[in-house]
Specification:
The chain is of the alpha+beta class. It has two domains: 36 residues, no CATH class; 107 residues, no CATH class. 44% of the residues lie in helices and 12% in strands. The protein contains five helices and four strands. The strands form two sheets. The chain has a two-stranded antiparallel sheet. A hairpin with a 2-residue loop joins β1 and β2. The longest helix is centred in the middle third of the chain and has 20 residues. The two termini are 34 Å apart.
Length: 154
Amino acid sequence: MPTIWGQRRGSVFVPYQKFGAAFEEIPEGARLKVKIDRDRNGKFSALFHVALGLLVAAINRGPASTSIDALKQWVKLKKGWYDVVELPHPAPDGQTHAIAYRSTSFATMGEAEFHAFCTDACELIRAELAPWVSSAPEWAEVRAIIDSIAPEEA
């Protein structure tokens, strides 16, 4: 059975246009199981990574060096977006716990929450990690990207 995305409108499920044909293939009266998932625009995630790439370029021109993955991990640590998990066996160095960074995937974070995470991440990087990026030429573009991915209800 295919996955079909859509929206609830009143008491009716309305499939997104690109899933209409798949929805029509389901026989009338068929029993369906609905799994609620937080929908998010895939373009927003890509744009956030573009913004992080711009921040990496600005940071790496300054007195520091980083990568997109390192920035995401740093933000998640600063914002408490992680869990401490017990290892099944002690590591060779004796550690018994590790950090598991929480996902910002489509299944775990809706559009409004993702936008807040993106905004907080960029502002946190500028305010605490690399204040010089606010005078970098990339900063205006980063702000424009963050503003462009604001959810409709924001």
